[in-house]
Write a structure and sequence with these properties.
This protein is mainly alpha-helical. It has a domain at about 425-525. The protein is built from 22 helices and no strands. The chain has helices at about 1-40, 45-65, 70-80, 85-100, 105-120, 125-135, 145-160, 165-185, 190-205, 205-220, 225-245, 245-260, 270-280, 285-300, 305-410, 415-425, 425-445, 450-455, 475-485, 490-495, 500-515, 520-525. The longest helix is centred in the last third of the chain and has 108 residues, at about 305-410.
């Protein structure tokens, strides 16, 4: 008995694991398909470009048509290429085709083209008028498949937009009638025959039979075109929707949407239905993106009927999406506010410690700077006081010697030599040269690298020329006084016994030679 119980438990656990693995695999496959669909929506413009290239090629061929018959055929290719892509352009070329139609067959084809465009634009009365106009003469047998397809599509659309049960029933019967006609005219086993047959069975609520027809055709044939794949997939989705199998419905709506995007179709049915299904499941983000894509492409393709259909459901999805975004923003703002409070407290604490540390550092730096300035000031004072005492004593001796020389000349009554000595600038120039020499020596004793430091600040081609026997030239003496804190040009001119214009010219010349911004030059000199 125990053994039987163990076996039963093992069987139940195994069954649960298999079911879990199956559900997980199915969910992963569905997620992969949805991610693929997201990618194709993002790059759908590439497929539109391919279609536009084909259209441009057809325009080039149309431009070189030699006769109306050839142009009629090229218009037909353009109409086909614009189908489900740009209804306004399809209408335009349908009008052009009807304008050049000559034979009864060409006129019938053009009128049926016109009826198709009117149906797609929701102008059902006009569609019937053009279709009836095509039947004023017996319809060419080649056009019966196209004619039956247009009738079925027209009455199906009229049924969708009917406002009363009586009208819906009437258009349903007419739709079924032309489905019968289509199945009779298309050979059994062909794509259109089996598709219409499955559609017929679906309308008769024979869902399993409809799926069997589609399965049998796909086992025996390969769907070559994106359009065939899309319409088969959307038919399956409709059947599974009727059966209540949401997972299968979603799967085939994704496949149909992928086929539409790859085929550069702008009139979406599957993508819109998929968006509504995802909206009901709570995937609001994707639902909004898919519905928005359907709205954009329906507008770009002038698909008025699709725009109306999407416009009914789009506000609902958009409202839900905006509500979702709003709640996300509120949650994000609350989270950010919490983080902000924590960050502010943390920053406040860090700033307090940084400020205290900075104050201590600033005080220490200012103290060190003051000490350095005092040391430099004391050194300058010491050097210049010593030089001043030495020069003063020397000048007294020189003036005393000059006085004695003049006294001797006066005693000997050599008044002409006294006058010549008093008129001569030699003594003054000698004293000035001695003053410059002592100034240069004193300054370079304090700042021995001053000349090389100034040279490093100038442009490479600038050269500081100093006369033999001198330590500094005029420009360097001006800069030396600026380094010592004397910046007023009048003071500099008086101290060095230069003219004011000489000082201005010197300062301007050196600023122009500076390898940087001119206004920063003298500030840089003051820090050497």
């Amino acid at each position: 008995m125990k053994r039987t119980s163990y076996i039963l438990h093992f069987f139940c656990i195994s069954l649960c694991l298999c079911m879990f693995y199956s559900c997980t695999s199915k969910s992963d496959a569905e997620d992969r398909l949805l991610r693929e669909l997201d990618e194709y929506i993002n790059i759908r413009s590439q497929y539109h470009s391919i279609r536009e290239d084909r259209i441009d090629s057809l325009h080039s061929r149309l431009a070189v048509c030699r006769n109306d018959s050839a142009c009629f055929e090229e218009y037909g290719r353009l109409i086909e290429e614009y189908r489900s892509y740009d209804l306004d352009s399809q209408l335009y070329y349908t009008e052009q085709r009807l304008r050049i139609a000559k034979t009864p067959f060409e006129k019938q084809v053009s009128l049926l083209n016109y009826s198709e465009v009117m149906t797609r634009n929701g102008m059902f009365h006009e569609a019937l008028v053009y279709m009836d106009s095509a039947l004023r003469i017996p319809l060419n047998g080649v056009l019966f498949p196209y004619y039956y397809h247009l009738r079925r599509t027209l009455y199906g659309s009229m049924r969708d937009f009917a406002v009363s049960d009586h009208e819906r029933e009437l258009y349903f019967e007419l739709t079924q009638h032309y489905r019968d006609s289509m199945m009779r005219i298309h050979p059994a086993g062909s794509f259109l025959h089996e598709l219409v047959r499955a559609d017929y069975l679906y309308e008769e609520q024979e869902y399993d039979s409809a799926l069997h027809v589609l399965d049998a055709f796909e086992r025996a044939n390969r769907l070559e075109e994106q359009g065939e794949e899309a319409v088969f997939a959307v038919t399956r989705a409709q059947i599974y929707r009727a059966l209540g199998n949401t997972e299968k419905e979603k799967h085939y709506l994704i496949l149909s949407s992928l086929a539409d995007l790859k085929g550069a179709v702008r009139e979406y049915i599957s993508l819109r239905d998929l968006a509504l299904l995802l909206y009901r499941e709570g995937d609001i983000d994707r639902a909004f993106r898919y519905m928005d894509c359907a709205v954009q492409d329906a507008s770009a393709g002038s698909a008025r009927v699709r725009s109306i259909e999407v416009g009914v459901t789009y506000p609902v999805v958009e409202k839900a999406y905006r509500r979702l975004v709003y709640h996300r923003q509120i949650t994000l703002l609350a989270l950010l506010a919490s983080i902000l409070v924590i960050v502010i407290l943390l920053i406040g604490t860090i700033l307090y410690f940084i400020r205290q540390r900075k104050r201590l550092t600033d005080l220490n730096n200012r103290l060190n700077q003051s000490i350095a300035q005092l040391q430099e000031s004391n050194q300058i004072k010491t050097v210049y006081v010593g030089r001043y005492m030495e020069m003063s004593s020397l000048l007294i001796d020189r003036f005393d010697a000059w006085r004695k020389e003049l006294k001797t000349l006066a005693h000997d009554r050599k008044y002409d030599k006294i006058t010549a000595a008093l008129n001569s600038q030699r003594f003054t120039q000698e004293q000035l040269a001695s003053f410059y020499h002592d100034f240069d020596e004193a300054f370079l004793e304090l700042f021995p690298d001053f000349v090389s430091d100034v040279q490093a600040l100038l442009v490479p081609e600038a050269e500081l020329r100093i006369k033999d026997g001198e330590r500094l030239n005029t420009d360097l003496r001006v800069l030396a006084l600026i380094r010592l804190g004397i910046t007023d040009s009048k003071q500099i001119a008086g101290f060095l016994r230069y003219s004011l214009s000489t000082i201005y010219n010197s300062r301007t010349r050196m600023r122009n030679l500076y390898n940087g911004k001119r206004e920063d030059f003298e500030e840089k000199i003051a820090t050497l």
